[in-house]
Amino acid sequence: MPHFLIADSETLTEREARRAQAGKSSGETYSVTLKQLSPDCAIDIVQPADDDARTFLPDDITRYDAVFLTGSPLHVYDDTPEVRRQLAFMRAVFASGTPSFGSCAGLQIAVTAAGGRVRKMPERMEAGISRRIVATKAGQGHPMLAGRADTWDAPAIHGDEVEELPEGARLLATNPVTRVQAVEIRHDRGVFWGVQYHPELALGEIAVALQRQADDLVTAGLAESRDDVDTRADQIAALHRKPDERALRWLLGVDGEFADEDRRRREIVNFLAELSALDRRRKDSAVPSPAA
């Protein structure tokens, strides 16, 4: 029975706000997704950002088969106690050799912990749908993207992005809005796979996220008013309820890569399938990298 550790990147206030609007914290959303994909798994959820968070040492993490880092409103470039605790946790994950996966802020935490840089996106955001994602040469044939179409859309909402990848990272996917959409990082003894988008989220949760950040979207020029944001959120929520509805897919300009739950989760499914190859706890040599 696999044993997973989920690091909820949200603060207590953020978790409570998300539960009030979406019904679950980011960590609880990941837990539901993993239970659906791996019904026999055991899951622990921790909150590294909290003041009273347990300090994890590498040996504490080796008892888990994988670690997952969630998204959150966290800004990794802010030098705050919450950020420092998250980075210390991720460095322990890398040092443990336990395979790890993260989305959105989870990706940004791993990048920063390994020596890269994250920044606020200059005069833009990516919200609702990350469009026209394509694999790089290094990403073509990489197991994380196995089964992906030549071009795909994914759920996303973020105003920060990776500015510089750390040493030991390979850019696997990109799009016209945000250069780093998918990446593999080999740092210390660990292997991390991450995406800037949200394969773990149901479309209804993306709709709620848009409504929660409506003012930010208007300020960024993605919508003229909160009513416009509500309209787009309603369309995405409708697709959540009727993912096969051709009219809704046409209205949103998406296909099954975005609308179908099993295809939307492809990166997580592939990560779970590759855990034994990525596990470096009992082997010091790196697993062979796919051809660049």
Model description:
It is a single chain. A nine-stranded mixed sheet has the order 2-1-3-4-11-10-9-6-7, sandwiched between helices. Strands 5-8 form a two-stranded antiparallel sheet. It has 13 helices and eleven strands. Helix 4 packs across helix 5 (105-113) and helix 6 (203-212) packs antiparallel against helix 8 (226-241). Residues 285-292 have low confidence and may be disordered. The protein has helices at residues 12-22, 26-37, 58-61, 81-96, 105-113, 203-212, 214-219, 226-241, 246-252, 256-259, 261-264, 266-273, 275-278, and strands at 3-7, 42-46, 66-69, 100-103, 117-120, 126-135, 151-158, 160-164, 169-174, 182-187, 190-195. It is 38% helix and 22% strand. By secondary structure, the chain is α/β, with parallel strands linked by helices. It has two domains: 3-201 and 263-278, Class I glutamine amidotransferase (GATase) domain (Rossmann fold), CATH 3.40.50.880; 203-257, no CATH class.
